[in-house]
Write a sequence for this structure.
């Protein structure tokens, strides 16, 4: 499980959403592969004709590995990639990218949804710059970033959100907000994934990955109760205490449910 409390980095600069590249890498990935093995296979596969060898190595080592290998979820996503609708698969990619890049998670949580909640339907590059400037001054980076680096990371945040369809993809410095609704299969997958990584029931309900979708704990309980009607789990709540009875014994069973639709 990635430590959410890491410092902000510039790692998004190695690749933003990389949606299509991730799908291609998942298609050739085999469980247990190292970064080097995946790189060698990707390079020889002919599936990345427009990507230089150096760029491909950076994509795998700096983006794919932190998001999907260190979390040991690449095999799960590979099993889902060909059958899961893009709108759902993109939510999976968004969450794992946010966990690997806490600057993105906090930007979505603290800026994106706050702008939307305040009645605004756009978000700007200046909003991202203000967020990064304040974060650097609050010591959330290991070193003090230069003005140039702060501008770059600001653009990375906007570009990544656009890649995952949280905002319009036009190149304007002002983007249209496209609020995303948590899909029931995303909720099912990540509730069980957190459970199997040792997170307790109350912590699951209060986990901040749900804030990527603008949800608070009460919202999460409602969403869990909604999918409980499908027989996927049982939720019991009394006040702030939540207890979940889990139906499936491993992620493979969860994936089977999602694949079956």
């Amino acid at each position: 499980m990635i430590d959410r409390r890491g410092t902000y980095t510039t790692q998004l600069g190695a690749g933003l959403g990389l949606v299509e590249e991730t799908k291609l890498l998942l298609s050739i990935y085999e469980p247990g592969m190292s970064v080097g093995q995946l790189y060698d296979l990707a390079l020889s596969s002919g599936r990345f004709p427009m990507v230089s060898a150096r760029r491909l190595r950076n994509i795998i080592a700096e983006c794919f590995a932190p998001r999907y290998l260190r979390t040991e979820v690449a095999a799960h996503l590979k099993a889902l990639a060909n059958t899961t609708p893009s709108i759902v698969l993109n939510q999976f990619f968004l969450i794992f990218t946010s966990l690997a890049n806490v600057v993105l998670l906090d930007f979505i949580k603290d800026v994106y949804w706050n702008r939307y909640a305040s009645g605004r339907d756009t978000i700007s590059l200046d909003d991202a710059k203000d967020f990064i400037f304040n974060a650097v001054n609050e010591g959330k980076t290991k070193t003090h970033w230069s003005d140039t680096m702060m501008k770059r990371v600001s653009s990375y945040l906007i570009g990544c959100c656009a890649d995952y369809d949280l905002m319009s993809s036009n190149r304007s410095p002002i983007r249209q907000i496209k609020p995303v609704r948590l899909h029931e299969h995303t909720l099912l997958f990540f509730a069980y994934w957190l459970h199997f990584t040792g997170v307790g029931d109350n912590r699951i309900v209060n986990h901040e990955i749900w804030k990527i979708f603008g949800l608070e704990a009460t919202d999460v309980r409602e969403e869990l109760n909604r999918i409980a009607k499908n027989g996927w789990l049982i939720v019991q709540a009394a006040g702030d205490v939540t207890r979940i009875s889990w139906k499936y014994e491993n992620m493979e069973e969860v994936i089977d449910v999602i694949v079956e639709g």
